[in-house]
Amino acid sequence: MPIAEPSPLVPAPSALRANLLAAFPAPDQFDPVLAHFLEQASQQLAQWLGSAALRSPLPAFAALAAAAAPAQLELDWAGLGPAALLADLQRVMDGAYNPNHPGALAHLDPPPLAASIAAELVCAGLNNNLLSEELSPSLSQLERQVCIWLAQRLGMPAGSGGVAASGGTLSNLMALVTARRAAGLACCPDAVVLASADAHVSLNKAMAVMGLPATALLSIPVDAGGRLDVEALAELLAQQRRLGIPVIAVVATAGTTVRGAVDPLSAMAALCKQQGVWLHVDGAIGAVFGLIAGHRQRVAGIELADSVTINPQKLLGITKTSSLLLLAEPRQLGAAFATGLPYMEPSWGGGHGGECGLQGSRPGEVLKLWLGLRQLGLEGIEKLLDGAIARRRQLQQLLAGNGKLLLRGGSLHLLAFTPAAASVEQAELWSQTTRQRLLAEGLMLSRPLYAGRHHLKAVLGNPHTGPDHLAQLAQLVQASLHD
Ligand SMILES: *Cc1c(COP(=O)(O)O)cnc(C)c1O
Fold first, then answer.
1. What does the pLDDT look like over 5-26, one tens digit per residue?
2. How many angstroms is it from 283 CA to the middle of ligand 1?
């Protein structure tokens, strides 16, 4: 096929300058300047990742100031060349949170997976749009297939599938909107959602977006292990029925945010089935354990849910964002969100991405998930899960030894703790000073307020964290209790 001559009407001003980096890559020839630029950016990133342990998990405030100095935000009239652009990038990198540090244990933000990084770069270059099939033919197909694969691995029924979303907050919102539609309650102002007291704050946001009052989220107490009390749920459901209040859904949490507790999913599923109520499992933290046979019992019953949120961006290290909403009946998504997309060619492959979710234009985030899973393999996933559980057990053992801490864990890879004998005020002060001391040694924990007291919390999903780091952590915590 003959390739058209580049039109003289299309100027390429940046290509005329000394640096020769074209603003838009040439469509008819390999551009060595572009390739070199991407290589240099990759080199810089690999340096940053490879020197993570030499810095702190949290950058110094001076680095933050440099990254966002007003002078850096002014646009140069003629635009910048590659060297200046790379320097701009470096300033922001210097002020960035450092998840590849072995002591980065504060949150559910692990080091990035190598294949995921490459896929993210390629995804940006493809610049496809999951809104519609013709704007992302291969990626639309891939997203459907990966959702089906994930649902099958979790043991969901044949015909299950789903959609990718920009984060678990959005997956949870889409689940509740879909459940509400399926229950015929889309326009009902009185309907309620039931979830445990430890459920994620994204449910509160969902209430606001769905036009429901904050009080429409009914809270069920948890037991000593942080798991929803099923008897209390049964009572509350019966009460709603007596009062004639319609229920949109029950939300179970598979992995609560502070302690990683998993609600009794099977019992909740049985109850919901009996009552004809939609069960959504917020598995943003825990659902990945259902992918591997040896860990599946940690989230047993997840396969019985009507919908499941899973966040591969958390433990698996798929680069953000990577969340999916999986449904036993994925066509329910279309019932809730489809608009007909009148300005698009019809989908030929099984539905437009923009017709089965809230988002319109969105990137092919499934690429970095798929490539990351391909790189890990089932063995790699299992090792990640094994390692995370082993580290939580080690830390739990070390901290239990001193007898002065109240430990709050679960069956996953999170552990929160607070001095057992301290007052609320003492616990807050302890959490502040201990976090600072740990940070000075390169160990970053978070400081959640849980059950009315400040705790320190470790998320043990970071594969770079070794037994020595945990021993040091336990020792510093031990010392903090003697002050
Ligand atoms: C992280 C988390 C979410 C929200 O996910 P985002 O990707 O941060 O929006 C929802 N539920 C639970 C239990 C979580 O831990």
1. 444 444 454 444 445 899 999 9
2. 8
Tell me what pLDDT residue 454 has: 98
Q: What is the atom index within ligand 1 of the atom nearest the CA of 313?
A: 7
For ligand 1, the distance from its centroid to the CA atom of residue 202, given in whole angstroms, is 7
pLDDT, tens digit, 9 for 90 and up, residues 468-481: 999 999 999 999 99
Which pLDDT value is given to residue 401?
Answer: 87
CB 67 within 8 A of CB 95: yes
Confidence label for 71 from pLDDT (cuts 50, 70 and 90)? low
Q: Does domain 122-374 have CATH number 3.40.640.10?
A: yes
What pTM was estimated for this model as a whole? 0.94
Q: Is the CB of 311 under 6 A from ligand 1?
A: yes
* pLDDT tens per residue, range 362-387: 999 999 999 999 999 999 999 999 99
253 lines ligand 1 (CB under 6 A): yes
Most ligand 1 atoms within 8 A of CB, residue of 108, 257, 280, 299 to mutate: 257
What residue ranges do the domains of the chain occupy?
33-97, 122-374, 383-480
Residue 456 near residue 434, CB atoms below 8 Å: yes
User: From the CA of 200, how far away is ligand 1's center (Å)?
Assistant: 7
**pLDDT score recorded for residue 419:** 97
Residue 365 CB–ligand 1 contact under 6 Å = no
State if residue 322 touches ligand 1 by the CB under 6 angstroms criterion. Answer: no
| Domain 383-480 listed as CATH 1.10.3210.10 | no
Mean pLDDT calculated for residue range 396-408: 94
pLDDT tens per residue, range 323-332: 999 999 999 9
Average pLDDT for 123-135: 97
Residue from 107, 108, 169, 310 whose mutation best tests the ligand 1 pocket (most atoms within 8 A of CB): 169
